Automatic annotation (TrEMBL):
Residues 14-480 form the Aldehyde dehydrogenase domain. Keywords: Oxidoreductase. This is Aldehyde dehydrogenase. One of its GO terms (molecular function) is oxidoreductase activity, acting on the aldehyde or oxo group of donors, NAD or NADP as acceptor. Belongs to the aldehyde dehydrogenase family. The keyword Oxidoreductase applies. The keyword Oxidoreductase applies. CDD domains: ALDH_CddD-AldA-like (cd07089).
Amino acid sequence: MTDGGQRLFVGGAWVEPDGGHYAVVDPATEETVGWAPEASRDQVHAACAAAREAFGRWSRTTPEERAAVLARAADIVRERLVPYAELAQAETGATTGTARGMQVGVGAARFRRYARVEPAEWPIAPQINEAGPMGRAGVMGALAVRQPAGVVTCITSYNNPWANPAGKIAPALAMGNTVVVKPAPQDPLSVYQMAEALEAAGAPAGVVNVVSGTSVEVGEAAVASPDVDMVSFTGSTAVGQRIAEVCGRGMKRQLMELGGKGAAVVFDDADLGAAVAGIGSTFSFYSGQICTAPTRVLAQRGVYDRIVEQLAAYAGRLKVGDPREQDTVVGPVISAAHRDRVESYVELGRKEGAVVVAGGERPSSDRGFYVAPTLLADCTNDMRVAREEIFGPVVTVTPFSDEDEGITLANDTDYGLIDYVWSADVARAFRVARRLRAGGVGINTVGRNMEAPFGGFRRSGVGRDCGSYALHAYGEVQSIVWPG
């Protein structure tokens, strides 16, 4: 970063922004972290053009060459983990452990993962053709080949400025694509550090471009540019719909990781300690600002009162405050505007008839955008707090009677990203999981297998990534056929 603020990264050059700079604010202290660049529409188009120009040469490099760049980037990020994490923490308000482990650490791990070369060709069983209008009888061989999609615009979320962009950039580059990254306006500075690491790792000019801004036209230009072949977006369903409409007009490929309202179905025989700890991660992990969180608890009536009591006690024990202090568990949310939004949902829950059994009041602090971990009990599935994504440390609890009712309630939602089942009966847990309309289901865990496909049903998204699925997501499949 220069004294005047961060520059854009376009075509391998660090460029002064046409729109000047805006302040990036630390949500824990409300102090200015740095000055982020405001790109113009022309500069976004220049980034897309640079990516298009670089695509031909980069796509013709070998998978091993591309993997070497990603491996070097992973090493550089690991070497700089502490200063990178300090900036990520300042931009997002994450706790120190989260910033180091789940933000920068996962970002490095994703570069390392896609430095692994995987086969891009698959033989298809030969087909015997009878003589006919298409020619003589013969045996036709075939090969399926995975090809890069082209220029990919990556629009990333504010909750993790390392893992989310790396999860897009790394598989896209591994496949031979070039990228234009438009980071979230709240915390873009970390993504420029990622670009610096990729540049130092030997990514050629134009292969990675980063443009930021608070104006809607920055993202619009990055999506609508005729140089762009695919858009990968993580964010709200409402914004995803608008992007999808533009992609549809241009027949651009898309990968959409959108909102969630994850159901946690807790049966009478569940290990309540494990269930409470898993559900309680909603309060602490990014302060609930995560689409995969189990925010909607469905508790069987035999354990309903105990779940409410134990979740309330759990929430009450969590220290809310300065994320730089070692014992802090819950840091701030990203902005004052988002704090107000989360608080408005808690008030809405009260009006709808939910009972606030934990939290519900703003923590006492002379600065910072803090929200107390909040538990809303006696909810029904028609309440807005049980249907809409709040994206904060707020959990709702709704009772159910039997397995079929629990499944019906879980599936009665516009979303379908990740649901959860807690039960000691493993056969039942798997039976229920298969009936849940969600892209993923955690059984007795909120943990993830990062090789498993990730994505949502319904309004939670389009497509799948993670592991080898991400290589498919950022590629096209070509068939080559020949006479045997």
